[in-house]
Specification:
The chain has 95 residues and is mainly alpha-helical. Helix content is 62%, strand content 0%. It is elongated, with a radius of gyration of 16 Å.
Length: 95
């Protein structure tokens, strides 16, 4: 009997398909720019509000998972298969 690896939802498993989708020629440039902006904000060490400000400083860190969801939805509005194909390409690069 074959055992399948359990796919964990980690930030890297979400980011890899987004990065590979930037190189897909079937995606509109506007959507690529939106995804690129979101990825740059996630990677950037600069926060909108510095973390040393109590409570409010950590509020912008809550945006990161929300931005990942927005990026996935931007890509999947018209074509869900694009994200699936990008995930397959990302898995192929991991091997």
């Amino acid at each position: 009997m074959k055992r399948f690896k359990k796919q964990r939802m980690t930030p890297m498993t979400q980011i890899k398909p987004l990065v590979t989708s930037l190189f897909d020629t079937k995606i509109e440039k506007r959507k690529k720019w939106i995804v690129l902006g979101i990825l740059l904000y996630i990677i950037s060490p600069i926060d909108i509000v510095p973390d040393f400000i109590p409570v409010v400083g950590y509020a912008d860190d809550i945006l990161i998972p929300i931005l990942l969801i927005i990026a996935e939805r931007v890509l999947s509005k018209n074509q869900k298969s694009i994200v699936e194909r990008a995930e397959n390409e990302a898995e192929r690069f991991d091997s």
